[in-house]
Design a protein that fits this description.
Blueprint (H helix, E strand, L loop, with lengths): L7 H7 L5 H75 L6 H14 L3 E7 L3 E2 L3 E12 L1 H12 L5 E11 L2 E13 L63 E7 L4 E7 L2 E5 L4 E2 L4 E6 L3 E9 L5 E9 L5
Antiparallel strand pairs: 1-3, 2-3, 3-5, 4-5, 6-7, 7-8, 9-10, 10-11, 11-12
């Protein structure tokens, strides 16, 4: 069985004589054929390119929004950066230009006495240069009760010079505790001829053991901590003398004088020699001369502790026989 020959020209010639529904179906068929060919050849690739351009345009819009936000805040960011740079420079200038280790050791001894802590030893380690400053580490060991040691470390943070405490260890030492720690002080690169700015410290943390317990003791053995040792407070309204503006380390005893009734000590500071009698004041810590001997003088200094009491410490200046 064979299909009859399909004569397209005959169909197209006789299409005008077709019934209306047939002609409509033929029109739809031709239109569908045109759409399929157009979709395959032109509309499909164009639609893919359009989708790719839309995705790229969306990404560019997001980048534009981000760049616009950065450009808007650029001035504020630059101002903030300048403020931070000025603050860093100011803080570095507040660091001492010299190590000041002797003065620091004196402060440590004062705070130890004020808090009832015995400093067993301080080992000054080699300086560690950094990019903008130099670290001066010190290995320190102290013995005392738990609250006393905590108050001592808190008082170190209250000093005018910057001190940080690291590598803290606690271990029993008989009935007390032993504290080993690495303390670091810092000095800047400020030239020695340039004046050092006053250090502006923030709010100071003060250790208050009144509501805390010693974690190394049983609750049944807890005892109230006495807020400092009572001592006579100095007369804070007394006018300070010229020699009280200098540290005692700046003086050396070079001799004594006596008129048969009263003895005087001769102390040299720089190129000047000063004469002191019993009862005179010396140094910034209310130091008062209590005795004058041929080979030494005795004085007593007063220090405030963190509990509102005053503590006294005796001190001796020995005659410099080589002066």
């Amino acid at each position: 069985m064979s299909l009859p020959w399909l004569d397209v020209s005959t169909l197209s010639h006789n299409a005008a004589k077709w019934p209306l529904p047939c002609r409509i179906l033929l029109g739809f068929a031709l239109a569908g054929l045109v759409l399929l060919v157009g979709e395959a050849l032109y509309l499909g690739p164009s639609r893919e390119r359009l989708q790719a351009l839309e995705v790229r345009g969306h990404a560019l819009q997001q980048q534009l929004a981000e760049k616009t936000g950065l450009a808007t805040s650029l001035e504020a960011r630059a101002d903030h950066l300048r403020v931070m740079e000025d603050k860093v420079v100011s803080l570095l200038r507040q660091l001492p230009a010299e190590s000041e280790v002797p003065a620091l050791l004196e402060d440590v001894a004062r705070l130890a006495v004020a808090n009832g802590v015995w400093v067993e030893g301080i080992r000054v380690l080699d300086e560690e240069p950094r990019q903008l400053y130099t670290e001066q580490p010190m290995q320190m060991g102290a013995i005392g009760a738990y609250h006393d040691l905590a108050a001592f470390v808190s008082a170190l943070g209250g000093l005018l010079r910057v001190i940080t405490v690291q590598d803290v260890t606690l271990r029993p030492e008989g009935a007390l505790l032993r504290l080993d720690m690495l303390a670091k002080t810092y000095r800047g690169a400020t030239p020695s001829g340039k004046a050092r700015q006053t250090f502006e410290s923030g709010p100071r943390f003060v250790y208050d053991p009144s509501t805390l317990r010693d974690p190394f003791l049983s609750p049944t053995l807890q005892a109230a901590r006495v807020p400092g040792r009572p001592a006579l407070s100095p007369d804070l309204t007394r006018p300070r003398g010229l020699l009280e503006g200098m540290t005692i380390d700046q003086f050396e005893m070079v001799g004594t004088l006596s008129n048969g009734v009263q003895a005087f000590a001769l102390l040299r500071a720089g190129s000047l020699v000063h004469r002191l009698a019993v009862g005179d004041y010396l140094g910034p810590d209310h130091g008062q001369v209590t005795a004058i001997q041929d080979g030494y003088i005795e004085l007593v200094e007063l220090f405030p502790d963190d509990q509102g009491a005053w503590l006294e410490r005796p001190r001796t200046l020995v005659l410099n026989v080589n002066s």
